[in-house]
Write a structure and sequence with these properties.
By secondary structure, the chain is mainly β. Among the domains are: 121 residues, no CATH class; 67 residues. 24% of the residues are buried.
């Protein structure tokens, strides 16, 4: 609003310096303060009335006026006239007061962007307001800035969904209007001129508009939601199927979620708003007289209060969170000792622009900068450089090619080119500029000119994806078909169908593969999920039309309304057994019990107000007690263990970061983070640590392992390209592994040394299509539309073929080496049968929990195997665990402790010529579950002593229960976070091992008996072993470009190897003591089966030949002396005999 003043004695009209415009927002009652004066010279907040906002503005503006040449000015004023318009919050005011005499000040509304002034009313114009849109993944940086507009968006969660309360409270800030919006603040407006236009204002600041055309509310271009007017209420349905109801005044009153849960809003017209679900779980929001939230709380939860405070300009500045001392005074902005976040508004452009966040630890967590037009030019974590992006809008208004340049935290420049389509600025091309480590790349997009719907996009690799949408009123704007790799041999088509009433997804189809169907009840709860096989492959049998189906049944506490679920029964796909699971809930919606098809039950008790259980009793009766922080994070667990409980503690700092985990034996690890929340270090309870030096994107540049004296014992360096992809890994000895990528980010090469480059290539769907090796050989891969391998061709051109159905089951593998194996399955996908290359059949059975219960061999039933669960003689804590295995050798039974660890294994075996005997092995553990003692069947035992970190420090053996302990190893010391480097054997010898900074063994000594030195090549292969105690026993090795052993030299002589393209050994030459042995290996042309070895030993030729069965098993070896070895195999494919 501009103010004109007729000053006494002045004949000219003066305009106050920095004249302000009064923004008159939407006329929706009781939604909080709606008025504000965004004066460039004076920052003001929103107010509830014109009088209030004028008062605030004048009190601030008069200070500036006093320093102008017109002052000093003393002025009191009052409203003498206020004329309201059609909407409650619009009108004209007149002010009079003593300002150098009686000077009337007149105010008239001047509307903000997106509104037109008509008859003193601010009416929304027809143009979409793209600045309001929340940045999506197609138009935003990582910490979202919409690079098509410069709009900054920030979302924060104050009350997270936890336990039975499956809803929370979040808020978001949008730089479009410099406003924090709280969840559930959406509202609806209707404008009536020549047309009725309804606008749904989302809680994120975006707006969906609809026009009444012949009684049907028709979405404007780019809007995929629907709107209906039903019995003086409004139903707004999102593409996801979520439904929001508004009353006749436009207030949100009900939310129906896609999972069937319902939220209602109560007391929307007062200072207290309650959001409630169908079970009575509630979140409250208390507002001040200006409608600003002052406190959010979980109703009936004394410990959870979130408080809000505002700065002098009315911007949210402080938010405090609950802690374990809710009534303790402190020095935070609320007079408490609670943790709090601070929001900064430091921009010289506009004091209402959010520029940063300081987290609960007092660390600057986020920083944003803006240009003179209020567009975000950088946004990132910490000081803004961590994970940050900078944006250059210099060419955004270029008429021929509007574009924005975005530079990521690692210096990668990407240019986004835009076109205005259906009223919105949309990305039509993405140009990745070449950088030091990244080639230039491009992407493009095409849109429907009327609706703005994405029609096609071409990725960096040139593959096109096309989209088609429904245009009927009921499914308008919903995706109908997505075609990937369009126009290529790898094209695959996904189709979608939606319910015409609820707009919920009812079918999702991958043509030629599967169809997934969904049935719902009226509230959107699933009734059935059906997976149908659409595949046409008939090898070895057809499966088209087969289904896998799950059904859901519900009982209710309120059977008439059917809103409060009492139980959910899920019936699985099998028809041979009852494979159901039941979940039961309390009247408050808390999960109280889960029962499986065998009656095993887990109980959840002593819930807190959020529905998080305080006690869990498993099917074996073991109780676990759970404790939570005031913010709902797990703080401590206690598992009952007879006389003592096993306790694990999780300690968090004020910012909710996990800082320390303390195990039951008091061993612990401490975690450190940087300002962005990236992990920077781990320290254990003996002061050993791992330190991570990170780049600005959070990638580790240097990983160091330090001992308690801060000496670096291991380190590894990494380098990344400007897209954050691993480019190089460098060891402490200069060994380098390099990585390359294609335009789509797929790994294309791994270089491990000079000339050692392993390559990969991909098809149009980014499925692996080939591997290349340094010796110029290659392997070829083919994938089906689901991305599963259908054919693998090795370096010799030999192919293994896979046949799979549409439900994810492997039906057959045809291999030149192992023969053809076929499989069958039940309705749940459990393997029922297998016929191997020999034609031998194996059958499998399962219980109602889909656990394997039997393996049978029709041709050799004596080899059958049975698996028993849940109960067996002597099996403690057995429910849900394997109790016994019965096979041809006898029976093996198990017993468990409270934590499910094996404490006894009983093996009943029948020895030749003797009766059955039972051999028992016992196991004992410490409180953390580490093995302490193992007692063998004869009574001998091995005992382990552990250090404060839990590593084995001493090992003892006892020959019998009452025998003295004999040391086997003692004084074991370790590399930090690594292997043992020192121990003393039971015979007194001391082992000492030295490792280099890459963690590789370089020296190994044992008293004066052993002294070995190890040398490694650049690729990490062991190159030399120097026996310093006995130099004649030293060894040396060589490798080819594929890291295969090519030669070895030692006491055994000199050995040389060669290989074919597939890695099969083709020759071995051994030279020792002037004697030479040469071996030549021959393979079948149609497989990798070894056929013969031609041996020449000191000039004398010999030959060995080999034959195989159809499963690839060796069945005959013809020796050089004319003898034979003929192995035989049982039905399980294990060797069970050798005959001459």
């Amino acid at each position: 609003m501009k103010f004109s003043v007729m000053a006494g004695g002045l004949s000219a009209l003066l305009i106050y310096p920095g004249s302000a415009t009064l923004v008159l927002a939407a006329a929706i009652p009781d939604l909080g303060p709606q008025y504000r004066i965004p004066d460039a010279n004076v920052s003001t907040s929103y107010g509830n009335t014109l009088e209030e906002v004028l008062s605030v503005w004048w009190q601030k503006y008069r200070i500036r006026w006093d320093v102008e040449p017109y002052g000093p000015l003393e002025c009191s004023y009052y409203i003498t006239e206020e004329t309201s318009g059609v909407f409650d919050r619009l009108g004209r005011v007149r002010l009079e007061g003593d300002c150098h005499g009686s000077n009337p000040i007149y105010g008239t509304p001047s509307c903000p962007a997106g509104f037109d002034l008509q008859d003193d009313l601010c009416i929304e114009n027809e143009e979409p307001m793209e600045d309001k849109e929340v940045p999506d993944e197609c138009t935003s940086t990582g910490h979202p800035v919409n690079y098509s507009t410069g709009n900054k968006h920030l979302a924060e969660t104050d009350i997270a969904p936890l336990g039975a309360r499956a809803f929370g409270l979040s808020r978001s800030w949008n730089s479009f209007d410099r406003t924090w919006r709280f969840q559930y603040s959406q509202y609806l407006q209707v404008r009536e001129t020549s047309l009725r236009v309804a606008s749904v204002h989302r809680e994120t600041g975006s707006v969906a508009r609809f026009t009444d055309i012949d009684g049907v509310w028709t979405a404007q271009p780019g809007v995929q939601e629907t709107l209906e007017e039903i019995d003086n209420q409004w139903l707004f349905t999102l593409p996801s199927g979520r439904r929001e109801w508004f009353d006749d005044r436009g207030n949100l009153v009900r939310i129906e979620r896609t999972d069937g849960r319902v939220l209602t809003l109560a007391s929307a017209h007062s200072s207290r708003v309650i959001v409630k679900d169908e079970y009575g779980n509630r979140i409250g929001l208390v507002r001040d007289a200006n409608g600003r939230p002052l406190r959010a709380y979980e109703v009936d939860t004394d410990r959870y209060n979130v408080r809000y405070a505002y700065n002098a300009d009315g911007n949210l500045e402080f938010v405090s969170y609950p802690d374990s001392t809710p009534d303790t005074a402190g020095d935070n902005p609320f007079g408490e000792d609670n943790p709090y976040r601070q929001y900064h508004y430091e921009s010289p452009v506009d004091a209402d622009l959010l520029t940063g966040v300081t987290d609960e630890n007092g660390v600057r967590h986020r920083t944003i900068e803006y240009d003179a037009e209020g567009r975000a030019t950088s946004s990132g974590l910490g000081d803004g450089s961590l994970e940050g992006s900078t944006l250059d809008y210099s060419d955004l208004l270029d008429a021929s090619d509007p574009r924005t340049r975005v530079t990521n935290a690692l210096g990668k420049d990407t240019v986004y080119h835009f076109a205005t389509v259906a009223g919105l600025r949309r990305v039509i091309a993405v140009e990745g500029l070449a950088s030091a480590n990244c080639l230039a790349d491009t992407q493009s997009r095409e849109y429907d000119t009327e609706t703005g719907w994405l029609l096609s996009e071409v990725d960096r690799g040139g593959a096109q994806t096309t989209y088609a949408y429904y245009t009927d009123a009921a499914r308008y704007g919903l995706l109908q078909q997505r075609t990937e790799a369009a126009g290529t041999a790898r094209e695959r088509v996904f189709q979608y169908d939606w319910d015409v009433h609820s707009r919920r997804l009812v079918e999702h189809t991958l043509l030629g593969e599967y169809r997934r169907g969904y049935d719902y009840d009226s509230a959107g709860r699933p009734l059935a999920i059906t997976l149908t096989d659409l595949s046409s492959d008939s090898v070895p049998y057809g499966t088209n039309g087969r289904q896998r189906r799950w059904t859901f049944q519900y009982t209710f506490f309120d059977p008439d309304e059917m809103t409060k679920v009492e139980s959910v029964t899920i019936d699985g796909p099998r028809t041979d057994v009852d494979d159901w699971t039941v979940s039961r809930f309390s009247q408050q919606g808390f999960l109280v019990e889960q029962v499986n098809a065998l009656g095993h039950s887990v109980s959840y008790l002593l819930h807190n107000e959020r529905g998080q259980p305080g006690r869990v009793i498993d099917a074996n009766g073991v109780e676990t007690r759970l404790y939570y922080t005031p913010r709902g994070m797990l703080e401590r667990t206690e598992v009952e263990n007879g006389a003592s409980d096993v306790q694990t503690r999780f300690m968090r700092d004020a910012g909710n970061y996990l800082r320390t985990v303390v195990q039951a034996d008091n061993s612990l690890e401490v975690y450190n983070y940087n300002a962005a929340g990236h992990l920077t270090g781990i320290i254990n309870n003996v002061a050993e640590q791992m330190a991570f030096t990170l780049d600005k994107s959070g990638n580790p540049l240097l990983v160091e392992v330090l001992d308690a004296d801060f000496n670096v014992v291991r380190d590894l360096q990494f380098a990344y390209d400007e897209k954050g992809r691993l480019l190089r890994e460098t060891g402490s000895h200069g060994q380098v592994t390099g990585f390359g990528y294609d335009a789509n980010g797929n790994l294309t090469s791994i270089a491990t040394g000079p000339g050692q480059v392993f390559s990969r290539n991909y098809d149009e769907l980014d499925h692996l299509a080939g591997l290349g090796y340094p010796d110029a050989t290659s392997a070829i891969f083919s994938a089906d539309p689901q991305g599963r391998f259908s054919r693998v061709e090795d370096q010799r051109g030999l192919a293994t073929v896979y046949h799979q159905d549409g439900l994810g089951n492997l039906k057959q593998v045809a291999s030149p080496d192992s023969g053809t194996t076929s499989y069958t399955y039940d309705a749940a996908g459990n393997r029922l049968g297998m016929i191997d290359g020999r034609g031998v059949e194996t059958r499998y059975t399962y219980d109602a929990l889909n656990r394997l219960t039997g393996v049978t061999y029709p041709t050799e039933p004596e080899k059958n195997i049975s698996y028993l669960y849940d109960t067996s003689s002597g099996c403690s804590f057995c429910v849900g665990r394997l109790a016994e295995i019965i096979d041809s050798s006898g029976a093996t039974g198990f017993a468990y402790d409270f934590a499910g660890r094996v404490i006894r294994r009983d093996q009943a075996v029948t020895l030749p010529g003797q009766s059955s005997v039972t051999l028992s092995t016992h196991f004992e553990y410490d409180s953390v579950g580490r093995l302490l003692r193992m007692v063998y069947p004869g009574g001998a035992s091995v005992e382990y002593v552990r250090d404060s970190v839990g590593r084995v420090s001493d090992v003892y053996r006892r020959s019998g229960p009452s025998a003295a302990a004999e040391p086997m190893g003692s004084g074991v010391a370790y590399q930090p976070f690594g292997p043992a480097n020192t121990l003393t054997y039971g015979n007194g010898l001391t082992l000492a091992r030295t490792f280099d900074a890459d963690g590789r063994l370089v020296r190994h000594t044992a008293g004066d008996r052993l002294d070995l030195s190890y040398t490694w090549d650049a690729a990490g292969n062991l190159w030399r072993i120097d026996n310093l105690a006995s130099p004649g026993r030293s060894e040396q090795f060589s490798y080819d470009l594929l890291n295969r052993l090519m030669g070895a030299s030692g006491l055994y002589g000199d050995i040389a190897y060669s290989y074919d393209a597939a890695g099969n050994r083709t020759s071995r030459t051994v030279v020792r003591n002037s004697g030479t042995t040469q071996e030549s290996y021959s393979y079948a042309p149609d497989s990798n089966r070894l056929q013969s070895i031609d041996i020449t030993r000191n000039g004398v030729p010999q030959q060995r030949g080999f034959s195989y069965d159809d499963n690839g098993n060796l069945v005959e070896e013809r020796r050089a002396d004319g003898s034979f070895l003929r192995p035989s195999y049982d039905a399980s494919n294990r060797m069970d005999g050798v005959s001459p």
